[in-house]
Amino acid sequence: MFRGSGKSSNWILIRNYIEYFLIYCFMGWIYESIWCDVIYHRRGFLNRGFLWGPWLPIYGIGFFIILGILTVLKIKKPLLVFISGTVIATSAELLASYILEITTGDYMWDYTGYFMNYDGRIALVPGLMFGLLIYAAICHLQPAIIRFQEKYRNNRIHNISFLIISALFIADLLCRIWLGSNFGSI
Hints:
With 186 residues, the chain is mainly alpha-helical. 69% of the residues lie in helices and 0% in strands. The chain has helices at residues 7-40, 57-72, 78-104, 124-151, 156-179. The longest helix has 34 residues, at 7-40.
């Protein structure tokens, strides 16, 4: 199905990047929905995304941005990945809060009451958590994903699973256009 070179190798490259995106969307959903709500805040399970499925696209997009920045800066040492990831993610969260406030009148989180918060927009603990997640993703998870993809590149179950999950994600995105945000059901 995906053997050979040329167009099939281009397809494999595209599939790999889409898989990275979907995996990090899912990992972000786990972090937000389970760690933040169930474990840290003890509010019980909440689907934190604007989609119904278990994915938060901002984490998939964020992964590519962070990976790109770290690649351009040639940062590979784990401690520097953690520090850079913390600074980049915290800066992005601060910027996003202002963009959301300008465009929608509000932003979607409030760190008021957190230690070392700035105007409720950013805080020390969430910033360090993002740095830890980025370290884990770049230094451990991404190499494991690449090894998995290389090992199972032509595996039929892998390829069919990829197609099904991708179709579900796209259907979920398209449904948001007509059904509105998931936040109304929370």
